[in-house]
Each structure stands twice: as structure tokens, then as C-alpha cells.
Amino acid sequence: MASASYKLSPWLHRWLNRRIPAAKHQRLSHRSIFILPSGFGLMWLLLSLLLFLFGTNYQNNLVIGLSLLLGSIFVSAILYSYRNLAGLRLSALPAPDVYAGETVAIPLKVTADSQLYQINLSYPAGDVVTVKEVASQGQIAALPLPTRHRGYLSPGRLLVESHYPLGLCRVWSWVDMDNPLLVFPAYHPDKVRLHSIPGGGEDSPLYQFGIDEFCGLKSWHPGESLKQVAWKQFAQGRGMLSKEFSDPHGDPVWLQLPANLCGEALEQALETLCWQVDQLAKQNCVNWGLQLDKQQLPPAAGEAQRIACLRALAVYQPLTMTEASDEQQ
């Protein structure tokens, strides 16, 4: 898999923003397609010119005819190269969760009005992905892109390129799919400790919170687990009864970001919190929240709580000196 190595200049970015605005759905047409001879195409034209000069100089009609044939093939290649991108439709799809330092596969749906061939797709910092055939039913292309830091990441303009059919012309387009990614902090494993803010500051171990407690008996119904059957009561002749359990409901507990951190210490603390959030979600812990300076995510549970906390960690910015002094006052 080849690696893309192009960088657009600022003035070209501004011109492209006016000519090809950002959108989650793009359809290539004459306004967004560019075409020039390739290196091989330039050599082809040079050969055609030399043959024409040679034929006219020596009055050789066969050589002149050959030069005209090569020229006509080149003109036909221009038309077919353009048709191989015209009508191509690209649609941005939601990207999977990614943590800093990982490589994310950005999904794009690729469809076309007619059969297209050998389409190369790449982002500036990613690898080139070749779609051999594009048809009306479409397919999903996953474009790899490395990540380094947490926060929002813009992949940049997508390079769509083709040299089909003969390699005489390079036809391409730069499209902005308007698909910024949110990169979560990297993992930094550490012991998970929850803090009870209302109760006054004692650390609460993860597995001490949310344990089911016995709260009574009810009639057993077919299909329920036999592990829940109250066998002692059954032996006493009271019939089939099953045990009921409930979660204890104490003060809400919180994951907290230590105060007065900056630089690498802050990033490591955010990475630790990121790992702890995932651990709490895996353990199905209930009634926990996240506190980042003035920002608080109220206690909850489930996948929605995990995503909300990871997003808050990804975009967190420390308080400025003015904000910190106002908070202390």
C-alpha cells in the first residue's frame, strides 16, 4: 500500500474552498475534475511530434500517419480519463472510536453513475487505497489515517485520482468531505478510584460500589435462572420462590481530574481517566460522574455516559490564570 505525500499550499486551499466547498456528499463533475498529461503522456506527445517531423522531413506518409494515430489515441485518452471520474459520488460515514496513537479507518461510501475503474483515494497523512471497480450499487472504502493527539482532527482534503485507461493522463480532484474526527486520549492504565464529593473525600474502590443486595422473595416463574431459587425455603415446603436483588443507592461517586496540572502531567492524567472511564463502563458500574474543573457530567451509566465522558476528556482545556483565580475567589 503506497503512502500519500502531498501538501496543499494556503492559496490553493482558499481557491478550492471557493470552487469545491466542503460537504458530506460530493459528486464529481467538470467543475471539480482536473486533468493533465502524465509523465508517460508527455513522452507519448514528444514521440508523436518527433515522428511527425521525421515523416515530413523525409516525406514518408507511413511515419506521418503513425504520428497522427498516436496523437488521436492521446486525445481519446483525455476523454476516457475524464469519464472515469465524472459522476463519481462520495459519501462520508461515521468513523469508529479512536484513541490517540491509533490508526483510524475512515469509511467512505463510493458509488458511480456508470462503471469506473482504478480509483485511488488518499488523505495527506494516510496511505493510498485503490478501488478497482466502482458500480452503481456502491461499496465502502476504509482509508487509514494515523492519529497522534487527542481532540478534533481534520483529515484534510481527499485526493481522488486515476490514470485509467492507458496512463497517458492524470485526472484528479481534491474534495473536502466535512468529516472531522474526535480523537480520545490514549490509554494509561491505573487503579480506578471513585470519589464521593458530598460525603467528604474518602476514596471508594471500584468494586465496593454497585453490588447487588438481597431485598426479598417472590414467586418463581418458569424460565428464570435456578441460581435465583431460594432452596432453603423450598426444603421447608414453602414452594418455589426466587430471590430478588437491588442495587444500593448511596451518594453519587465521581471520577475527578487532579487540580493544578499542566503539560505532560495533565495529558497523563487525562489518559488515566480515559482508561478508568472504559473500565467503569465494562464493569457496568452505576451512578458515577466525571468532574473536570468547573465542568461536571452528572452521574449516570451505560454507553451514552461512556461516550459523553470520553468526548469531554478529548476536548478538555485547562483553566487560564484568570479563570483559576476567579474560581478560587
From TrEMBL:
Keywords: Membrane, Transmembrane, Transmembrane helix. This is DUF58 domain-containing protein. The chain crosses the membrane at residues 33-56, 62-82.
